[in-house]
Amino acid sequence: MAWLLRDGEVLAALEIAQSRKSRRKGLLGREGVDGALLLPAARMGVHSLGMRFALDVAFCDSDMTVRRIVCLKPLRMTRPSPRAPRVLEAEAGAFDRWKLQVGDQLEIKE
After folding, report:
1. What is the tens place of the pLDDT at every residue in 14-24?
2. Contact at 8 Å (CB) between 73 and 54?
3. In angstroms, rounded to a whole number, what is the distance separating the alpha carbons of residues 28 and 20?
4. How large is the C-alpha radius of gyration of the chain?
5. N or C terminus of the chain with fewer C-beta within 10 Å?
6. Which of 102, 2, 88, 4 is nearest to 42 (CA)?
């Protein structure tokens, strides 16, 4: 299990989608998610087609600095973010609870 941190503070448990299959599936088929999911290679953006809940989505650069945040309702798509290839997904409302903002420097601890 990995952890998502900001300034040494644990924000959430973190699942990392390493394989192509797990990146493609993302959070599809789940009723919700505790913590967050990291898609390490999502340059083409993400979608919520078939999702059962809204998502908070943070686009991060290769250093895990948050570059853009969107709330994605079901049946929506984001535009690509070539300068932010890593995508962090959580259940809608999580980023507000974590006070996550553009410019935050995140860290992954495994």
Report:
1. 988 875 655 55
2. yes
3. 14
4. 12
5. C
6. 88
